[in-house]
Amino acid sequence: PRKIIIDTDPGQDDAVAILLALASPEEIDVLGITAVAGNVPLELTAKNARIVCELAVHTDVPVFAGCDRPLKRPLITAEHVHGKTGLDGPVLPDPQMPLAEGHAVDFIIDTLRMQDPGTVTLCPLGPLTNIATAFLKAPDIIDRVQEIVLMGGAYFEVGNITPTAEFNIYVDPEAAEIVFESGVHIVVMPLDVTHDALVTKHRNDAFRALDSRVGHAVAEMTDFFERYDKEKYGSEGAPLHDPCVTAYLIRPQLFSGRHINVQIETGSELTLGMTVADWWRVTDHPPNAMFMGDVDADGFFDLLTERLARL
Ligand code: BDR
Ligand code: CA
């Protein structure tokens, strides 16, 4: 299995991404989960990550708290999407498992130094603050990263928090810039893909029909999460952004995209946090990312439902 660190700001869709990873031990070995401030403040994301581990009955996975604010800007949160706990929807007990000792950034650094070079994949599902901080603090780890598979950005779908920016990149554009310029190979799941991974009624019924704690919790999370997108965009259901990352690790052939140059706007107030993706290759800037454009949504939901059934 592929060794990964999940860097996350749960978030209902983050929660489903984590569940999918924990349900897939043949393909994925979760070395640890690092929480970052994003959808809600750090204290809540660090708590929610542990709630999700307990829901999956995987209290063996260490959960670390990381950065509580972006590198250079005040934190922007998304309670309007995720509710005030970040995980509104199901009623889940407070976690019993403690946070792991130490800072998430140090866990990322130590893990990359300890494991063989090129064997650890980073999976950021929130703002890139923890990852960029680790790269700034310990540049020697950059070359040791196997790959970064992240959810963030948009090209044809432009933005969801401003007209031109996707939330994860917008919250900490300076961190995103560091990551995209690091030289590490990056696989990007932008809104172009995740807005096709919609939990329609039929798909939500399939989660509920699992008739397990996890099945009901996921159905209730997506029930809550879809309100925002339905009202705001007239979308057919909740977009499962972050699970695209973990699904890619299991079944990459579900996704297709282009290996292109992607740069992050950090200067302009108007387009701050935009992922400027050279989709049509109109520049000669070297490719730094596999920018996905398409997902086999039925295949994705079949995989997700089949795996959640194992928990
Ligand atoms: C991203 O922002 C968050 O609200 C979601 O968890 C996802 O990671 C989508 O723009
Ligand atoms: Ca997220």
Layout: helices, strands, pairs:
Elements: E1 2-8, H1 12-22, E2 28-35, H2 42-55, E3 63-65, H3 79-82, H4 104-114, E4 120-124, H5 129-137, E5 145-151, H6 167-171, H7 173-180, E6 186-189, H8 191-194, E7 198-199, H9 201-208, H10 213-233, E8 238-239, H11 243-250, E9 255-260, E10 262-264, E11 275-277, E12 289-295, H12 297-308
Parallel strand pairs: 1-2, 1-4, 2-3, 4-5, 5-6, 6-12
Antiparallel strand pairs: 7-8, 9-12, 10-11
Helix pairs in contact: 1-2, 1-10, 1-11, 4-5, 5-7, 9-10
The protein binds beta-D-ribofuranose and calcium ion.
Protein name: Pyrimidine-specific ribonucleoside hydrolase RihA
GO biological process, one term: purine nucleoside catabolic process
Keywords: Glycosidase, Hydrolase
Verbal overview:
With 311 residues, this protein is α/β, with parallel strands linked by helices. It is 37% helix and 18% strand. It has helices at 12-22, 42-55, 79-82, 104-114, 129-137, 167-171, 173-180, 191-194, 201-208, 213-233, 243-250, 297-308; strands at residues 2-8, 28-35, 63-65, 120-124, 145-151, 186-189, 198-199, 238-239, 255-260, 262-264, 275-277, 289-295. Strands 3-2-1-4-5-6-12-9 form an eight-stranded mixed beta sheet, with helices on both faces. Helix 1 packs parallel to helix 2, helix 1 (12-22) runs antiparallel to helix 10 and helix 5 crosses helix 7. The longest helix is centred in the C-terminal third of the chain and has 21 residues, at 213-233. It is globular. Bound molecules: beta-D-ribofuranose (BDR) and calcium ion (CA). Residues 11, 13-14, 39, 78, 81, 125-126, 151, 160, 166-168, 241-242 line the site of beta-D-ribofuranose. Keywords: Glycosidase, Hydrolase. Residues 4-302 form the Inosine/uridine-preferring nucleoside hydrolase domain. It comes from Ruegeria meonggei.
